[in-house]
């Protein structure tokens, strides 16, 4: 009797194993005929048999499951993500098949990702670039592309997750580029290493060299910080910047990014302090001088604001906003004088004082106008804001002919647009 039970049990196990193999054969056949819907249905039946499958059959199940869900690259987003997860479960056997499938997926995701990007479908591109990275995690650049394209479509929570992953991976993003100088033209050109070495050997190029492109770290940390600011989490935003600055204290971009966070937090004192720190490292940066000028102007420190705007124009004579603000400083000073004039009484002494103040006001307004005319002389195609302000000053001075002349210029500019 005992012998009969053992024989019956053996027959049951054999039949059960046959059933498992049969279901997987059905899946395999459906996949070969490109009937992925049927393959997925058959996989549901096979899944119920999973607990009793041996390791070999489990490996086959997960591999076939990946193929069915992937559907030659035509699966939906959810199915493809599940296919990638299923591939991770394939153990032992099917090593070469898994490698081939991953290569196929990688090329497909990358091609479709680039195509989506070129069509400005950044949401799709972001997902495809991330899948490309998940398949080959040595290609960290695609994780960066996934984050950057998520920002393009304002998917900030997704972008934050990807950027923080990049930060935790200590991703730098600086690429090594190879260059040489064309002997005939004297122009430096960037080439791949083998081509450059070939040209040097042939004698058509000279002065070979290599350099790294700029690190992506400042951008990554800045975007993490800005996303946290948009979420109202200023503490984490500042932590992100401070961590980066501790690692790279001489990086001016990081100082500016931290300053901009404080500006968004309306802490102008801290903003100004950081911009001034950045200026010690980059004294020729016109924008930094301009920002200091704006802060001083907002605080009513007109003399220091004037110094900053004059410095901007000495560095970059085309900086129109600096010219406008410098002119405005003198108009504001003139307006203060006008307020004094308004407080005077009707006595002879007050009348005399009025005339003195009027002269001071006019001198300040004329200085404001002179700044703009000097700017126009250096920049004949200056933007209309410069001309509009100059016209307003001339009207305030009662110089109607000059105002009409500038007004005609403004109309001519508007007609040419």
From TrEMBL:
TPR repeat windows: 218-251, 286-319
Keywords recorded for this protein, A-Z: Repeat, TPR repeat
Gene3D superfamilies: Tetratricopeptide repeat domain (1.25.40.10)
InterPro entries: O-mannosyl-transferase_TMTC (IPR052346), TPR-like_helical_dom_sf (IPR011990), TPR_rpt (IPR019734)
Entries under Pfam families matching the protein: TPR_16, TPR_19
Coiled coil: none
SMART domains: TPR (SM00028)
Descriptive protein name: Tetratricopeptide repeat protein
């Amino acid at each position: 009797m005992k012998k009969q039970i053992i024989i019956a049990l053996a027959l049951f196990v054999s039949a059960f194993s046959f059933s498992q193999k049969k279901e997987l054969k059905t899946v395999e056949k459906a996949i070969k005929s490109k009937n992925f819907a049927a393959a997925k249905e058959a996989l549901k039946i096979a899944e119920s048999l999973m607990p009793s499958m041996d390791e070999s059959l489990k490996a086959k199940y997960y591999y076939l499951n990946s193929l069915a869900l992937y559907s030659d690259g035509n699966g939906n987003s959810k199915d493809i993500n599940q296919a990638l997860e299923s591939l991770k479960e394939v153990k032992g056997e099917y090593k070469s098949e898994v490698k081939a499938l991953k290569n196929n997926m990688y090329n497909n995701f990358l091609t479709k990702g680039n195509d989506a990007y070129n069509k400005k479908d950044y949401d799709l591109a972001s997902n495809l670039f991330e899948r490309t990275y998940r398949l080959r995690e040595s290609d960290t650049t695609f994780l960066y592309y996934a984050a950057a394209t998520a920002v393009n479509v304002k998917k900030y929570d997704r972008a934050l997750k990807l950027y923080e992953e990049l930060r935790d991976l200590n991703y730098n993003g600086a690429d090594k580029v190879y260059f040489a100088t064309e002997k005939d033209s004297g122009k430096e050109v960037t080439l791949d290493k083998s081509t450059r070495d070939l040209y040097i050997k042939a004698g058509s190029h000279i002065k070979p060299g290599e350099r790294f492109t700029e690190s992506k770290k400042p951008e990554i940390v800045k975007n993490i910080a800005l996303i946290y600011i948009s979420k109202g989490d200023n503490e984490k935003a500042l932590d992100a910047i401070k961590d980066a600055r501790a690692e790279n204290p001489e990086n001016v971009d990081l100082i500016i990014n931290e300053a901009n966070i404080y500006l968004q937090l309306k802490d102008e004192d801290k903003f100004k302090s950081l911009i001034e720190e950045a200026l010690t490292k980059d004294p020729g940066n016109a924008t930094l001088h301009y920002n200091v000028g704006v802060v001083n102007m907002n605080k009513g420190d007109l003399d220091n604001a004037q110094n900053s705007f004059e410095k901007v124009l000495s560095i970059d004579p085309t900086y129109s906003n600096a010219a406008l603000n410098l002119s405005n400083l003198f108009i504001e000073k003139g307006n203060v004088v006008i307020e004094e004039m308004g407080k005077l009484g009707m006595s002879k002494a007050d009348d005399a004082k009025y005339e003195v103040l009027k002269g001071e006001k006019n001198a300040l307004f004329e200085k404001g106008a002179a700044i703009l005319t000097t700017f126009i002389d250096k920049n004949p195609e200056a933007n209309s804001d410069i001309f509009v302000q100059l016209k307003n000053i001339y009207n305030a001075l009662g110089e109607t002919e000059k105002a009409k002349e500038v007004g005609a210029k403004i109309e001519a500019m508007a007609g040419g647009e």
